[in-house]
């Protein structure tokens, strides 16, 4: 086997963006710290909800030990699509790693923790701001006054 292929993004994910060279630095450092041979990264296309590069990495994984993503949150937001990606990686006897979060999975039973983290991140984006919460709790609330 050859090593671990990086997976970086050319678009925002969860409203965040990191330059591609920074993503590669983070992945390279993760591989070095974990004694993994780093292979050049593949870059996902910029179109929203496009995961062609990830699918190609998974399908061509017979030539690599696994995939090192810059972040867990680069994965598809649809849970069934994410689960299928994990299943396909593990069916090929490979592992997937997430450099920013310092997490990895080699078996399907390890995915629950990743899913919990992913779902919490998704939920945070749907929560009310302090201002909105104050408006719900105290309809007469004015932002320059402290609620009783």
Which strand order do you get reading across the main beta sheet?
Answer: 2-1-3-4-5
Question: How many domain regions?
Answer: 1
Low-confidence stretches: none
The SSE order reads EHEHEHEEHH
Can you walk me through this structure?
- The protein is α/β, with parallel strands linked by helices.
- The protein has a single domain (4-107), classed as 3-Layer(aba) Sandwich (Rossmann fold), CATH 3.40.50.1390.
- It has five helices and five strands.
- Strands 2-1-3-4-5 form a five-stranded mixed β-sheet, with helices on both faces.
- A hairpin with a 4-residue loop joins β4 (95-98) and β5.
- The mean pLDDT is 88.
Provide a short characterization of the protein structure.
This protein has helices at residues 20-33, 52-59, 79-91, 111-124, 130-137; strands at 4-9, 38-44, 66-69, 95-98, 103-105. With 148 residues, it is an alpha/beta fold.
């Amino acid at each position: 086997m050859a090593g671990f292929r990086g997976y970086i993004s050319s678009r925002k994910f969860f409203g965040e963006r990191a330059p591609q060279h920074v993503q590669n630095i983070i992945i390279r450092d993760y591989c070095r710290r974990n004694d993994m041979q780093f292979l050049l990264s593949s870059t996902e296309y910029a179109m929203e909800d496009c995961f062609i590069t990830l699918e190609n990495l998974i399908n061509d994984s017979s030539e690599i030990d696994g995939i090192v993503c810059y972040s867990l949150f680069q994965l598809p937001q649809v849970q069934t699509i994410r689960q299928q990606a994990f299943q396909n990686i593990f069916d090929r006897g490979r592992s997937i790693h997430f450099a920013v979060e310092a997490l990895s999975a080699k078996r399907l039973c390890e995915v629950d923790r990743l899913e919990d983290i992913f779902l919490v991140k998704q939920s945070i984006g749907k929560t009310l701001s302090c201002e909105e919460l104050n408006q719900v709790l105290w309809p007469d609330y004015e932002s320059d006054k402290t609620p009783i």
